[in-house]
Design goal:
Low-confidence stretches: none
Strand content: 15-25%
Bound molecules: flavin-adenine dinucleotide
Number of helices: 7
CATH architecture of the largest domain: 3-Layer(aba) Sandwich
Largest sheet: 9 strands, mixed
CATH class of the largest domain: Alpha Beta
Number of domains: 2
Distance between the termini: 54 Å
Shape: globular
Helix content: 25-40%
Radius of gyration: 22 Å
Mean pLDDT: 96
Length: about 260
Amino acid sequence: MKIGVLLKQVPSSDEQIKIADPSAGIATGDIKWTINPYDEYAVEEALRLKDAKKASSVVVYTVGGKAVEQRIRDALAMGADGAVRLDDPAFEGSDCLGISRILSAALKADDVSLVMAGKQAIDGDNAQVPMMVAELLDWACVGVVSKLEIGDGSLKAWRASGGGVQDVVEANLPAVITADKGLNEPRYASLRGIMMAKRKKILVKGAADLGLDGATVGAGAAHVVEDAWSLPPARPAGRILEGDNAQRVQELVRALHEEAKII
Ligand SMILES: Cc1cc2nc3c(=O)[nH]c(=O)nc-3n(C[C@H](O)[C@H](O)[C@H](O)COP(=O)(O)OP(=O)(O)OC[C@H]3O[C@@H](n4cnc5c(N)ncnc54)[C@H](O)[C@@H]3O)c2cc1C
């Protein structure tokens, strides 16, 4: 069984995001990039399945420009066997549906049986791409998975369904899984892995390679339009309550009730 891992590069979570031009998105000039943390869980789980002889190979798929190759190399250094970078001028400006059309076309062409993805990308936070990929492929999709077992042509997944409740879901393969924190502890790349990653091949595919009509992806096909970007309003300063404990508790309750209107 071949596992495809969807991988997106995102700004590192300790980066200070700046907006230079409200119509152009975040300023990317000196940003440090990283693999989306939830995608690292997806890579790790795929590698564990291969280590357990439940998969024959692990291939990383990403829609992005040449600059994304360093993140792909990071996943190859962890142990992924190969990678496909999907890049074409026709892909520019794709919204979630466009990105999903590109990814699903690539996965279909490669005879992948299980797709592992992050539950969301920590920049856009859309949490849409893996579900759309599953829908386009007409596969089962189980999201926010914190434990996964693969059987013979089937899977069993544990997922948080809110309020402390956990669902246990069974599905047939092929399927798409989205990884939550807690699924595993991603490994660090070994020195040998880093050296070997340099020799692994990254295939680059465009619309024609995928048999994709360029008019169904890219800015022209986007249903979502980003009008303007702005930073969230600055948080008001905190307040230290004065007096003895009884006075502070009284003031805290009053502020929560009358000002914050929480209680
Ligand atoms: C009008 C518009 C124009 C845009 N133009 C561009 C553009 O030109 N270039 C661009 O890069 N983005 C562009 N975007 C953003 C892009 O559509 C989103 O990054 C993408 O849809 C994924 O959304 P998300 O990041 O919130 O992912 P989520 O749906 O939250 O991601 C969940 C998971 O899906 C997988 N995934 C998501 N994106 C990718 C990817 N690119 N490759 C592989 N796996 C992925 C990962 O496993 C990820 O953890 C544009 C968005 C809009 C609305």
